[in-house]
């Protein structure tokens, strides 16, 4: 006798644990849906081969995809093997995440049946409910698929309200930093955030943030961190941010003896949002000694081109304010933009050295041409040898850090992957021409 429940198997390794946690928090309570999570390749293949899955009427295999993983040939081979096995066992396959949103057609080319565009909480819940009830899956908004050999997008859907779902599935014992803000109004040309989550910021309410902070502390997690594209933009007003910081101090730091890390990993602050009153107040609230500032370049020409919305003077002002109140500004820089000139590199190294003299440190990154951005799959600029030596001296002196050299290797892999994209897409469309409208 067939099990009437929908079986969902989600692949959750360390690279996508946060995003899968968000999906789990949204779908775990969907009626008649049973969710199994696997965290390594061997476990996934074993789950797909298990005889226990035979009893389920509907089975779904889901991945969250990062471009930096997709360009790895070993990972693609694993995905290919998993999808082949899944299809042989009667699964419907789905993918979401930054790569799926940024390049849905390529994601179909990897072998997935359905791609979730953008935020997946609402759309995945509806998708599973429609599957369970035998409805028309093509009426679920937010999906990208192939229909009769042609790409089909089912349409945009409303943005997710953060308070609608927990930030993690705490009932499974799974936790991560609390997402407090989603979306970004700036649309920087290298960054996926605006193009995946929209330009209107949405904020989790202070009451909900405190609720989940208290929950984490009650489970023995005493170091609390937050996910936001700009930590000083919370509530879209200075007063809201000050209210959040004050209540974190009164309810979490003072009463629960937990430690709050704000404006540091895994988030940052924009330099034009650094406010003296906020930084002064933070000194009594947070436990982080560093505040991460997103400068991104030392060239105003580059900053204008990538649409940062601020200049170098705002960076200097932010560094000065942060140092004044006893924090160390850890300033992000990205090099290797396709249009970056020799003069831009020279301006950037001068800005870096000035920041170090002011009391800051340099956090180095290399440009990655991520799909879904205006600079998708663009060829990165090679870094001049003299610039490498200058940055190496800063790092050697303990004034800089970063995984930029490994990112340079990955960036070139992404560029090459994009260069070969048209051949893969053409092959995909040729092979699916004339497909029937069916799910399995």
From TrEMBL:
Cofactor: [4Fe-4S] cluster
Protein origin, superkingdom: Archaea
Organism: Staphylothermus marinus
Alphabetical keyword list: Iron, Iron-sulfur, Metal-binding, S-adenosyl-L-methionine
UniProt cross-references to SMART domains, sorted A to Z: Elp3
Organism lineage string: Archaea, Thermoproteota, Thermoprotei, Desulfurococcales, Desulfurococcaceae
Protein's UniProt name: TIGR04013 family B12-binding domain/radical SAM domain-containing protein
Domain B12-binding: 3-138
Domain Radical SAM core intervals: 170-406
GO molecular function: catalytic activity; cobalamin binding; iron-sulfur cluster binding; metal ion binding
């Amino acid at each position: 006798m067939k099990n009437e429940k929908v079986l969902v198997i989600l692949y959750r390794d360390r690279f996508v644990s946060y995003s899968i946690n968000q999906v789990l928090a949204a779908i775990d309570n969907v009626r008649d849906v049973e969710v199994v999570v696997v965290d390594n390749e061997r476990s996934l293949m074993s789950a797909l081969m298990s005889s226990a899955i035979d009893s389920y009427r509907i089975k779904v295999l889901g991945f969250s995809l990062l471009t930096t993983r997709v360009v790895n040939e070993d990972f693609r081979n694993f995905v290919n093997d998993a999808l082949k096995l899944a299809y042989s066992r009667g699964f419907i396959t789905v993918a979401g995440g930054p790569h799926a949103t940024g390049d849905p057609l390529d994601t179909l080319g990897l072998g997935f049946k359905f791609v979730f565009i953008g935020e997946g909480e609402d759309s995945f819940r509806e998708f599973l409910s429609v599957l369970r009830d035998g409805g028309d899956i093509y009426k679920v908004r937010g999906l990208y698929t192939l229909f009769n050999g042609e790409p089909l997008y089912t349409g945009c859907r409303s943005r997710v309200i953060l308070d609608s779902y927990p930030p993690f599935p705490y009932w499974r014992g799974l936790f991560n930093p609390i997402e407090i803000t989603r979306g970004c109004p700036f649309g920087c040309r290298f960054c996926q955030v605006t193009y995946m989550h929209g330009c209107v910021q949405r904020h989790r309410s202070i009451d909900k943030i405190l609720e989940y902070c208290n929950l984490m502390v009650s489970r023995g997690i005493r170091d609390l961190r937050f996910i936001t594209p700009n930590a000083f933009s919370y509530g879209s007003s200075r007063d809201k941010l000050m209210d959040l910081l004050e209540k974190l101090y009164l309810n979490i730091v003072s009463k629960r003896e937990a430690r709050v890390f704000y404006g540091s990993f895994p988030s940052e602050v924009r330099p034009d949002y650094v406010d003296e009153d906020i930084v002064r107040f933070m000194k009594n609230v947070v436990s982080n000694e560093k505040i991460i500032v997103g400068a991104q370049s030392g060239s105003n020409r580059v900053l204008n081109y990538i649409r940062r919305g601020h200049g170098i003077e705002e960076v200097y002002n932010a560094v000065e304010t942060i140092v004044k109140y006893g924090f160390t500004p850890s300033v992000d820089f990205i090099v290797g933009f396709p249009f970056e000139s020799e003069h831009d590199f020279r301006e950037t190294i001068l800005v870096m050295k000035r920041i170090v003299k002011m009391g800051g440190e340099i956090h180095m990154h290399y440009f990655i041409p991520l799909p879904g951005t205006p600079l998708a799959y663009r060829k990165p600029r090679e870094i001049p040898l003299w610039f490498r030596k200058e940055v190496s001296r800063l790092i050697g002196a303990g004034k800089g850090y970063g995984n930029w050299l490994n990112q340079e290797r990955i960036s070139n892999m992404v560029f090459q992957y994009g260069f070969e994209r048209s051949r893969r897409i053409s092959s995909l469309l040729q092979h699916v021409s004339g497909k029937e409208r069916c799910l399995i």
